[in-house]
Amino acid sequence: MPEQAESTAGSPTLEIKDFLRRRREQIAQRWADEPLFRAVFTVSRDEAVEAGKAVVDALAQVADAARLEDPDAAGFTEVREQLARMGTARSRAGLSTAQVSGELAALRPPVENLLLADLPDAPAEHTRACVTALSVLMGTLRVVVMQTALSEGQALIDRQRLQLLEVATPVIKLWDGIVAVPLIGTLDSARSQVVMETLLESIVEQQARYAILDITGVPTVDSLVAQHLMKTVAAARLMGAECIVSGIRPAIAQTMVHLGLDLGTVVTRASLADALGYVLHQLGVGIVTPGANGTGTSGAVAR
Amino acid sequence: MHTAAGSQARLPIRSDMDLVWVRQHVRQTAAQLGFGLVDQTKLVTAASELARNTLVYGGGGTMETETLTGGATPGLRLTFSDEGPGIPDLEQALSDGFTSGEGLGMGLGGARRLVHEFSIDSSPGAGTTVRVASWVGRPPRPREEA
Description:
heterodimer; A: alpha/beta; Globin-like; Transcription Regulator spoIIAA; 2 domains; five-stranded mixed beta sheet; 13 helices; 7 strands; rod-shaped; B: alpha+beta; Heat Shock Protein 90; five-stranded antiparallel beta sheet; globular
């Protein structure tokens, strides 16, 4: 082959570039049989081969620019999205980062075998240099995939954190003039700010005179959480609504006493039901339960 | 995450999210060692206070957990260290209601009341290290008058 004779004289990087362009079809065919491509491109083998060709083209372009070690090389731009899709598809399938990395590593040996077959008569030193250059290039490909997959993961986490901030603070109308906020999870500064704002808004909207803050779903009440609660209570009080803190579990109650936390003048109740009962009583609403003979009426009536 | 008996772990305290992880780690470790619900909650709350101090006043640091198997019952030691400005007056810092920031001033003194053993090592410019430990089933420490 004249091409081969020509390129044997070139640098290993150029040799790799020529080899990738020459063997594009074969490499893509072999990759299509590897677990990574088989698992990601399930529709047809042709699809996997096409994707493989795109990756080979990108690698050849990177080699052409002599930037074997650079994950930011321009050659990767076009396949970056495709590589990210492959990486995330595998991690979504439940593979660990190490397993995905292993699958990517498995793409190297078939290429290396093709390369060695192309260099039967080359001097040993040149062959070694070419194999090393190929290894470096394939290593960079691995870095690119892992990088894009990781940044995708980070973006997902950031999105979910924002969602949590919004979702976890519903204000519920329990009765005319009574609203309740079931607090769930960690009450850090950002979330307690959201809670306070939504509560104050709904006090205005619902013309509520009573607001129940239920902390059943808050796992830890430390001094900062207590401080947030008291600030919320104070703000609600300024707007003319009385706050009741409910859902104080026995373990939390004991811990708060040891910690030296005192909710002061805030009315507290063990459960949301107790708190509702207290507030209904304050509003002068009585609950009539059916009598033993079943003739009574059920439900709440105004006294 | 599972922590075997006698094992150690080291967690970074760099952000609010790390505080969540610190609390969850302490809760899981304490539950595995056999701490009751009340003692778990006390230990987690103490860890939450101390980790927040490390973050807010110490500018970030680490928490190390160490399970203690030498005693009659298993125990858990937590060490919070930072390389922040340190505490000039420990006596004052431990008293309830004192704060150099905007908190309630209950954190340090409160955390001391929630655990069996408490020691603090700090000097201005040299950072702060707080060590606390509790054991399963041991009655609460008698309250010493400050």
